[in-house]
Amino acid sequence: MMENMTIQMISDKDQKEYIARTVLEALTDWFGVTESREEYIRLSRDWSFFAAMVQEKPAGFLCLKETGPKTTELAVIGVLKDCQRRGTGRALFQAAREYAVKAGYEFMQVKTVQSGWYEEYDATNQFYQSLGFQELEVFPTYWDEKNPCQIYIMSLHQQPSLTDLIMSRHSYRGKYKADKVPRKDLKTIMEAGLAAPSGCNKQTTSLIAVDDPQLLAKIKAVIDPPVAETAPAMICVLSQKIIAYRDRCFAVQDYSAAIENILLAVQDLGYQSCWYEGHITDDDRINEKIASILNVPEEYELVCVLPIGIGETVPVPAKKKPFTERAWINGFNKQSE
Ligand SMILES: Cc1cc2nc3c(=O)[nH]c(=O)nc-3n(C[C@H](O)[C@H](O)[C@H](O)COP(=O)(O)O)c2cc1C
Predict the structure, then answer these.
(1) What backbone phi and psi angles, to 5 degrees, belong to 271?
(2) In ligand 1, which atom is closest to the CA atom of 263?
(3) Ligand 1 pocket, 314 CB below 6 A?
């Protein structure tokens, strides 16, 4: 997904039409038939409309259309080619899903050309399945015989699975909204951190959450160059070098497990964060300055800060190496089916 991308809900009908036209006219592989493209553009004026914008230019859009009192349809989605496979469609869908849940809908459907006919539509099917849509039924002649209509359905009550949560976690380095993080949420997030495994159960990791605006400002003032300047809260991770057994100390593994738990709880509760360790533990020892502001005793090292807050934009997914370069079954570099 593009840097600085925002997802916006659009209500102005002319703006909806302009965005739909800009995107769909660039996507001739999917929307090549002028009549049906114009129909989508015209109808989109009256649909619930979500736009992905990069520097005020449209990168993609998604429309929801009510099909019944409790049912909605993902009527159209389009993402410019440069922005495809970069999380834009997923971010649009997440925003639309959140809206649909709040609006009281219980099911969402989407129609596309059945898998196995055209490469472009095979990718579309995979995309819908990866969002959690289930195949409902195929209507072979709904459009025409060369375009069998696959209908997908999704229950909006369905909670994302833990695996979905893990796969959708990304580091967030954008601006945060001013909304405070309730203490209850901060405590839940910290409890998730403390629940992590630790070598010989030595529990070498401790945490300090900071939500006092003046204290936060003091901490942010020593983070140079600045990061997370707008975050309304922060969790500082402390580590103690306690021997687990013989000469083995697992403090690094312990706090790493705790941080991952924290990041997942942050994601689960709808907040954003980023693991800032390199930045604060370099030669300029920002971590020591923060530790001193928080009166941390010498036997603890402050190893990481985790801003917490609601993101103003959506996180940019980092590119990961392909599965087959890093993971194998039954032996090093063994490719599996
Ligand atoms: C040990 C460690 C130190 C990190 N330090 C920083 C940091 O100082 N600044 C930063 O922007 N990100 C930092 N990160 C976040 C990584 O850059 C990020 O996890 C990585 O680029 C992969 O992106 P993802 O988290 O979206 O999967 C750190 C991550 C780890 C595990």
Answers:
(1) -105, 175
(2) 25
(3) no
Please work out whether the CB of residue 147 comes within 6 Å of at least one atom of ligand 1: no
User: Cα-Cα-Cα-Cα dihedral of 80, 85, 86, 89, to 10°?
Assistant: 60
Residue 54's H or E segment, with its range, is strand 48-54
From 1, 261, 276, the mutation candidate for ligand 1 (largest count of ligand atoms within 8 A of CB) is 276
For the segment 19-25, the average pLDDT, to the nearest whole number, is 96
* pTM of this structure: 0.73
Superfamily in which the 183-308 domain is placed by CATH:
NADH Oxidase (3.40.109.10)
- Tens of pLDDT, residue by residue over 238-286, are 999 999 999 999 999 999 999 999 999 999 998 999 999 999 999 999 9
CATH class of the domain whose range is 5-168: alpha beta
Domain assignments of the chain as residue spans, ordered by start = 5-168, 183-308
Q: CA 133 from chain center: how many Å?
A: 18
- DSSP assignment of 2-19: -TTEEEEEE--HHHHHHH
Residue whose tokens read 């967030």: 172
